[in-house]
Design a protein that fits this description.
By secondary structure, the chain is α/β, with parallel strands linked by helices. It contains 3 helices and 5 strands; from the N terminus they run βαββαβαβ.
Length: 132
Amino acid sequence: MAGVAIGAIAQGLLVLVCAERGDGEGQADRLLAKLLKLRIFSDENGKMNRSVQEVGGGLLLVSQFTLAADTSGGNRPSFTQAAAADEGRRLYDYLVAQAQRAHPVVATGRFGADMKVHLINDGPVTIPLRVV
């Protein structure tokens, strides 16, 4: 399947998703709520004041366990804080299903795949979100 586009959106949010040990559906629900309401798109005055819902943008949800990397102990990252693969997949699938219920444009990557993700970043906005 090399070279095949799995998921794509036009305007919207590329969301790199990482489940960590102890995460559950509550974190996924809070993350989705935050993503849909986060006011980071420009309004008519150029202010970050509109949500992905308001601009009719899409969500591209891509699993990315490496966000749990801990580099404090040396030069090789540790991923012990990442959720086990089966739990990570369950939570990712749950988030995708909830997003598809709540928002009209949702695309995904392929869980656990070696993906080439292409991004055209429209502005200097990259925001890490951690929900507890």
